[in-house]
Design goal:
Layout lengths: L11 E7 L2 E7 L1 H14 L3 H11 L5 H16 L2 H6 L18 E2 L3 E2 L11
Antiparallel strand pairs: 1-2, 3-4
Amino acid sequence: MPPSFSGRTTLVSGNVTIAGRRTSMRLEPEMWAALKAICARERLSIHAVCTLIDERRGEGGLTSAVRTFMVKYYEGAATEEGHERAGHGSGAPFGWGGGAGRATINQGEPAETLELETEEA
């Protein structure tokens, strides 16, 4: 398993109850923390949020739907002012220092030239 950014165990199992049915998910510790923060902000239990996600998900799995929901949730909350306060846009997205930490993809190509591919269903 790849290391997590926190250095802790990569995946942690947790149980949630969706529409009265208990199921488990394996998420990184950072993802569990983000999900719990969303629940607190929305004043909903983790079970209620996961039930809402499950009701809206397509053919994919619950864990994937939860991760996608969290990205979209925080993406919707992101503002230019917030990015500036966090120091984003400096070429060091992880806060590990100046341009020396700049991400590269495909043997040295700058990250901004990355083209994303998706699977066609």
